[in-house]
């Protein structure tokens, strides 16, 4: 029995469906991310769990208890809002202590727990400041401390890091995950940043237009995307359209124009149009005529630890991600070859059925 | 309106849970006291005045509850009232134009000032709005009255005879004082528009070769035009029904609509006639305000709508 | 170039000076006349005198009217604010049947001429038998000043980060506690600004009050207006000077506290 279960949770705003029949179970202590483009219904889902939005249909069950109709102030979940929603007229200590005060916890105990949680987020020296006197990252940590101090059974984070600049965001990703591991609170995070979702979560729920597309461990969501949406939204990819065929040995292969490419780990399929995905980092560049196809470098982008090339080939424009190992790579206009291993090619389903596989 | 979750709980499509049903009543509880207060204390008096305006008045018998239209025929077709209404709206129009000509440039000038001056001048301009109208009008009586400063000044210049020079009981006097009373509304209205204007659009125009005056006319003014128009509306509507200043400066000799209502009620005691004048004034005011704002809205919805 | 283009030219400054003189002249004249030693309206050319200020103290009717105005302003501004806060919360946060109507209703006194409201209240209050009482003055004033309090409270509520209240509720606060501890402190500047604007509007109101006031319950503006109808003497100037000084002090507080331009343009 899961710790938290969402059963076909649905929300309509007038005629538009923000969330369509979302099913999800979360285990105790797990860190799960809701990942999807802006407007796909992540916040609505989170707000329904928090109790600020009443579902049109569906149930929310926690520890065997139906919480669908419980008032938000009776749920006891810790919530970190996207804007942080710190109380501007209260000091950091007062902000953090608010939830304890609501629970009528005695003053000395309150002080102790405030100090403890502020130590946890490394802000104990700033307890007398007001929110506007803090930096973005510090505010973020106050918001986290305020949510954690009430020792909630469930922590809800709505885009917690999206207001921070890139460098700080990476630091906070690590720190947030470490704190969560230490405290062990079951956590549901909403984000539109796939890197963040992949690096922080135990499992990722990929959403699009109110529907769940895939629920999987980050590695699997990346390596085995359930469909075209997931494969393009989670990471960059090369999409190739072609046909299924069989080669001389009678094994399935992917046919594009006059060229055929081997596939690995795929059973027999009917011939017909299919689409495959090849991750850029699986595309290897070789000298002219030594790869599977030949092409010409159209653009290149240097990103420090790697180069990103766009190569014009007979099968279309391909993205290749090559690690930077010292010498400058290929130049624009260079004639190159391109190759990949058969197991790098992922066959994509068109149907939007969420993958059942990959559940832990 | 970004927060619409509570509202949508109420949209009727949500599951009929106890919580959402009790939530649906919250806005009515919250607005209830004020709504009752207004319906009783605003609705009833206006309704009773409307009824009163159809009653009959007789100088010996007073008000009787016989219904008649004669009050309205008097107000609408009598040359005496035509003159009063025409004079009122003439004063309103001139006052509004003067306020535009004085207030709009002044707002821009203050807006371009440097730091301490800017807030000081704004304070001096807007401050009089908070000072009693009676006090401000009294100031004008002392200035433009029989032996006021203006008269002494004119006498010194030899422009007025020994009997002095007075603008009391003249339309000019009323307009001057009205402009003084109401011009801050124009400044504040244009000011509110200016705060939304990006002054670097002016620099952009200069960089494209426009002369300073062209910048003002083609770039800045069109952007503050909504402020000018809404300020004009406020001023026009207020002047058309203003009482204190026309009453003190215009006196009985220069009657406007508001002072004639006052006289019907408190001197002649012909309440039904006074009531019908007020109703006509109210209707004219509402019609003017409504059609003007609809026109403005249609004109500017695309470019300068509230965003 | 860019800095210079934003400077005011000589003509603009000349215009500005004339405008300021126009605005201040009547007030300055009133203050000057108040210090005249003569028994009639004149400028204090032969030295200043406080005799007309002492004269105020000998006029209990003026002093009583002043206190009446003060009381009326305090009571009606407070009542209007108390009615406005819940109404503003509902208008800002809920979309319900009749919302547009109520919004229009609460702001309608801005569009109805005060003279019309005056005669309407005169009839209404005398019909229901409370004509001329202090209560009737309060009722009438609440109606005309509530648009001001409502607009400012509404702007404050709209400008509020709604999530802070939700955060409080998620931490276990009841809606009432959330309002009292989180929302109210944050909208307090708007509430106070609205209260002050309402107070001064009530304190200054003449047109409508002329009809509602009675000899026993009169306000300072009405008292002065009736006095002007009879005669104009330096007493009016000295009373006016007191009003000007008090209003300017009040205005400086309001500006310091909230920003006069924000209060008067009704924006948050
Ligand atoms: N209160 C609301 N009223 C009407 N539509 C809403 C409301 N909140 C969200 N929506 C709509 O529901 C969809 C999902 O919104 P949201 O959950 O905020 O998306 P996300 O957080 O993934 O960006 C959007 O299309 C949005 O326009
Ligand atoms: Mg969101």
What does this structure look like?
Chain C: It is a multi-pass membrane protein. Chain C: It is found in: Cell inner membrane; Cell membrane. Chain C: Belongs to the binding-protein-dependent transport system permease family. The complex is a heterotrimer of chains A (360), B (307) and C (268). By secondary structure, chain A is of the alpha+beta class. Chain A has helices at residues 42-50, 92-102, 107-120, 136-148, 166-183, 194-200, 218-223, 228-233, and strands at residues 4-13, 16-26, 31-35, 57-62, 65-66, 78-80, 154-158, 186-191, 203-208, 211-216, 238-246, 252-256, 259-262, 272-278, 284-287, 293-302, 306-313, 316-323, 335-339, 346-348. In chain A, strands 6-7-8-3-9-10 form a six-stranded mixed sheet, with helices on both faces. In chain A, strands 13-12-11-14-20 form a five-stranded antiparallel sheet. Chain A has a five-stranded antiparallel sheet with strand order 15-19-16-17-18, with no helix packed on it. The longest helix of chain A has 18 residues, at 166-183. Chain A is elongated. Mean pLDDT of chain A is 86; it is low at 351-360. Chain B has a single domain (79-303), classed as MetI-like fold (Orthogonal Bundle). Chain B has 14 helices and two strands; from the N terminus they run H-H-H-E-E-H-H-H-H-H-H-H-H-H-H-H. Chain C has one domain: MetI-like (MetI-like fold). The two termini of chain C are 34 Å apart. At the B-C interface, helix 3, helix 5, helix 6, helix 7 and helix 9 of B face helix 1, helix 3, helix 4, helix 5 and helix 6 of C. The structure holds adenosine-5'-diphosphate (ADP) and magnesium ion.
Write the layout of secondary structure elements.
The complex is a heterotrimer of chains A (360), B (307) and C (268).
Chain A: E1 4-13, E2 16-26, E3 31-35, H1 42-50, E4 57-62, E5 65-66, E6 78-80, H2 92-102, H3 107-120, H4 136-148, E7 154-158, H5 166-183, E8 186-191, H6 194-200, E9 203-208, E10 211-216, H7 218-223, H8 228-233, E11 238-246, E12 252-256, E13 259-262, E14 272-278, E15 284-287, E16 293-302, E17 306-313, E18 316-323, E19 335-339, E20 346-348
Parallel strand pairs in A: 3-8, 3-9, 6-7, 7-8
Antiparallel strand pairs in A: 1-2, 1-4, 4-5, 9-10, 11-12, 11-14, 12-13, 14-20, 15-19, 16-17, 16-19, 17-18
Helix pairs in contact in A: 2-3, 2-4, 3-4
Chain B: H1 5-9, H2 18-23, H3 26-52, E1 56-58, E2 62-64, H4 70-77, H5 79-111, H6 115-126, H7 133-144, H8 149-156, H9 171-194, H10 200-207, H11 212-240, H12 244-250, H13 257-268, H14 271-304
Helix pairs in contact in B: 4-5, 4-14, 5-9, 5-11, 7-9, 7-12, 9-11, 9-12, 10-11, 11-14, 13-14
Chain C: H1 10-34, H2 51-57, H3 60-93, H4 99-107, H5 114-127, H6 134-158, H7 162-170, H8 175-204, H9 209-212, H10 220-230, H11 234-258, H12 260-264
Helix pairs in contact in C: 1-11, 2-11, 3-6, 3-8, 3-10, 6-8, 7-8, 8-11
Bound molecules: adenosine-5'-diphosphate and magnesium ion.
Magnesium ion (MG) binds next to α1 of chain A.
InterPro entries (chain B): MetI-like, MetI-like_sf
Family (chain B): Belongs to the binding-protein-dependent transport system permease family. CysTW subfamily.
Domain ABC transmembrane type-1 (chain B): 85-292
């Amino acid at each position: 029995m899961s710790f938290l279960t969402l059963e076909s949770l649905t929300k309509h705003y007038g005629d538009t469906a923000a969330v369509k029949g979302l099913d999800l179970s979360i285990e105790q202590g797990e860190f799960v991310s809701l990942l999807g483009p802006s407007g796909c219904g992540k916040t609505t889902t989170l707000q329904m769990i928090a109790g600020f939005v009443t579902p049109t249909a569906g149930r929310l069950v926690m520890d065997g208890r139906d919480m669908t109709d419980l008032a938000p102030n009776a749920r006891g979940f810790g919530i970190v809002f996207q804007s942080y929603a710190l109380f501007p007229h209260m000091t950091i200590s007062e902000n953090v202590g608010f939830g304890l005060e609501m629970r009528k916890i005695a003053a000395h105990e309150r002080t102790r727990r405030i100090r403890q949680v502020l130590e946890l987020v490394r802000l104990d020296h700033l307890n007398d400041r007001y929110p506007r006197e803090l930096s973005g990252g510090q505010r973020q940590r106050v918001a986290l401390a305020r949510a954690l101090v009430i020792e909630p059974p469930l922590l809800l984070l709505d885009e917690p890091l999206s207001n921070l600049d890139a460098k700080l965001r990476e630091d906070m990703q690590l720190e947030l995950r470490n704190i969560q591991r230490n405290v062990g609170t079951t956590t549901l995070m909403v984000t539109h940043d796939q890197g963040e979702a992949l690096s922080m979560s135990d499992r990722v729920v990929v959403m699009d237009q109110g529907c769940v597309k895939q629920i999987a461990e980050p590695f699997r969501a990346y390596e085995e995307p359930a469909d075209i949406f997931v494969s393009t939204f989670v990471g960059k990819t090369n999409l190739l359209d072609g046909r299924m065929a069989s080669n001389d040995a009678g094994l399935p292969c992917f046919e594009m124009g006059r060229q055929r490419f081997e596939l690995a780990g795929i059973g027999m399929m009917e011939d017909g149009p299919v689409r495959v995905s090849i991750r850029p980092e699986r595309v290897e560049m070789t000298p002219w005529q030594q790869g599977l196809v030949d092409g010409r470098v159209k653009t290149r982008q240097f990103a420090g630890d790697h180069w990103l090339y766009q190569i014009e080939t007979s099968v279309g424009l391909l993205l290749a991600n090559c690690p930077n190992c010292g010498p400058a790579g290929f130049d624009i206009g260079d004639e190159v070859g391109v190759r990949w291993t058969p197991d790098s090619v992922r066959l994509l389903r068109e149907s939007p059925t969420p993958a059942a596989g990959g559940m832990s | 309106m970004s927060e619409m979750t509570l509202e949508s709980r109420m949209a009727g499509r949500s599951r009929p849970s106890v919580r959402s049903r009790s939530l649906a009543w919250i806005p009515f509880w919250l607005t209830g006291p004020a709504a009752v207060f207004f319906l009783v204390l605003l609705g009833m008096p206006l309704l009773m005045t409307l009824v009163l305006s159809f009653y009959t008045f007789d100088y010996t018998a007073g008000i009787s509850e016989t219904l008649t239209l004669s009050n309205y025929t008097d107000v609408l077709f009598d040359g005496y009232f035509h003159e009063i209404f025409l004079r009122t709206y003439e004063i309103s129009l001139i006052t509004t134009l003067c306020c535009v000509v004085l207030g709009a440039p002044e707002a821009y000038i203050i807006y371009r000032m440097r730091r301490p001056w800017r807030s000081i001048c704004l304070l001096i301009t807007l401050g009089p709005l908070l000072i009693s109208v009676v006090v401000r009008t009294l100031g004008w009586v002392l200035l433009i009255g029989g032996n006021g400063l203006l008269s002494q000044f004119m006498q010194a210049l030899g422009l007025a005879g020994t009997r002095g020079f007075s603008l009391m009981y003249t339309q000019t006097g009323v307009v001057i004082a009205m402009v003084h009373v109401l011009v801050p509304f124009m400044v504040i209205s244009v000011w509110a528009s200016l705060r939304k204007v990006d002054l670097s659009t002016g620099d952009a125009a200069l960089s494209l070769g426009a002369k300073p005056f062209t910048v003002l006319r083609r770039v800045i003014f069109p952007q503050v035009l909504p402020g000018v128009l809404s300020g004009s509306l406020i001023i026009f509507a207020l002047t058309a029904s203003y009482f204190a200043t026309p009453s003190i400066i215009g006196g009985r000799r220069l009657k406007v609509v508001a002072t004639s209502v006052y006289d019907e009620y408190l001197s002649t005691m012909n309440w039904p006639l006074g009531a019908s004048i007020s109703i006509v004034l109210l209707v004219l005011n509402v019609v003017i305000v409504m059609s003007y704002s609809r026109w403005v809205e249609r004109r500017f919805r695309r470019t300068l709508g509230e965003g | 170039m860019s800095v210079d283009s934003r400077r005011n030219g000589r003509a603009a400054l000349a215009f500005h000076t004339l405008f300021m003189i126009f605005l201040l002249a009547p007030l300055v004249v009133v203050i000057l006349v108040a210090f005249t030693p003569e028994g009639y309206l004149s400028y204090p050319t032969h030295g200043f005198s406080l005799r007309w200020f002492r004269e105020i103290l000998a006029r209990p009717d003026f002093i009583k009217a002043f206190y009446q105005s003060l009381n009326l302003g305090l009571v009606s501004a407070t009542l209007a604010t108390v009615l406005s806060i819940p109404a503003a919360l509902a208008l800002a946060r809920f979309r319900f049947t009749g919302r547009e109507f109520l919004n229009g209703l609460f702001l309608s006194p801005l569009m109805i001429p005060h003279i019309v409201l005056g005669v309407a209240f005169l009839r209404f209050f005398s019909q229901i038998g409370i004509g001329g009482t202090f209560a009737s003055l309060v009722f009438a004033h609440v109606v005309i000043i509530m648009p001001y309090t409502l607009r400012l409270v509404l702007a404050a509520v709209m400008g509020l980060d709604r999530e802070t209240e939700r955060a409080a509720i998620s931490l276990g606060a009841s809606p009432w506690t959330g309002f009292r501890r989180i929302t109210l402190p944050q909208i307090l500047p708007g509430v106070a600004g609205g209260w002050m604007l309402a107070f001064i509007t009530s304190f200054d109101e003449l047109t409508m009050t002329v009809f509602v006031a009675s000899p026993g319950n009169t306000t300072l503006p009405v008292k002065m207006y009736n006095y002007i109808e009879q005669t104009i003497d330096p007493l009016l100037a000295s009373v006016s000077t007191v009003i000007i000084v008090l209003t300017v002090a009040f205005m400086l507080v309001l500006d310091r506290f909230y920003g006069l331009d924000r209060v008067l343009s009704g924006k948050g």
